Amino acid sequence: MDLLELVRYILYGIVQGIFEVLPISSSGQVAFIQFIVNDQFEYSQFFLIVVNLGSLFALIVYFRKNIKELLCHTYLDLVKKKDNPEYKKSSIYLKNILIAIIPIGILGTILTLSGIDIANISLIIIGVGALLTGTILYLSRHRTDLYTSTKVTAKKAWVIGLFQILALIPGVSRLAVTATAGTQQELSYNTALKFSLLMSIPISLGSILVYVVRGFVDIHSLLDFDTSLWYMYFYYFTSMFISFFGTLYALKFIFIITQKGNFRMFYVYNVIFGLIALLIGIIRY
C-alpha cells in the first residue's frame, strides 16, 4: 500500500464530497488539482461509481424524511387513489422533479454512451466555466430573499431543467445554475435550493446506472485494475466514505449560509478560481 496514493484518493474524495453540493464545480476543482500537480491519475468507471455513491448516500440520508414522504404520498395518490390534497401535492412535486431532469438526462446519456468526455478539457474552458458560475451567482445575489413562492410548477421545473444543461460545461456549478434558475422563476431561494438538491438524486442514480451499463459492455473499463491488489478497493472505498461525510457536512453548511443570505464567498471564490485557472491555462497553452 502506497501512503501517497491513499492521500491522493482521500483528497479527491474530499473535493468530490464538499463541492458536489456547493455552488462550485467539483469536477472543475479536481481537474485543476490534476493540472497543477501534473497528476496523471484518471478516473476509472468503477471509481466514478464508488465516489458518486458516497455523495448520493449523503443526499439520501440528509433528505430521507422528504424522500419517504414523497414516495409514500405519491404511492397513495397514484396507486391507492386516496383523495388527499397532501398526497396530490407530493405526487405533483415528484413529477416535476422528473420533468426537470429530462433535458440533462437525455443529453448527458448521449454524451456518456458516445464516449465523449467533456470534463477532460483544458484549464481555459474550466476557468471560463467558473467565471460564468461566479457571474451567475453575482447577478442573482439580490434575488435570494426577493420571492417567497414555494410552489414548483411543471413549467418552472422544465425551465430549471433546461438551464441545468449549462452544468455540462466544465467549471460550471450545477447547483448555482439550477438554484438561480429557480429564483428567476420567482421561487424562494430555499425552495429552489431544495428542489435542485432533490433532483440531483435521480440524476446521480442515472449517472451511476450509465456507468454500470458501460462497464458491463466493456468490463475492463469497469474493473480496470488488478483485482488481486486488495488495497485498490481500500483506496476506492476510502474515497467513497470521505465523499459521503464531505457531502453531508456541505449540505448542512449550504443551508446555514442560505438562511443568512450570504453568498458572497461563493461568487468571489468562483471568480478568483476562474481567473487563476484561465491565466494558467493560457500560459500553458
TrEMBL record:
This protein's GO CC annotations: plasma membrane
Membrane topology: Multi-pass membrane protein
Pfam families documented for this protein: BacA
Coiled coil region boundaries: none
One example of a Gene Ontology biological process annotation: peptidoglycan biosynthetic process
GO molecular function, one term: undecaprenyl-diphosphatase activity
Protein name as catalogued: Undecaprenyl-diphosphatase
Organism in which the protein naturally occurs: Hujiaoplasma nucleasis
Origin organism lineage: Bacteria, Bacillati, Mycoplasmatota, Mollicutes, Candidatus Izemoplasmatales
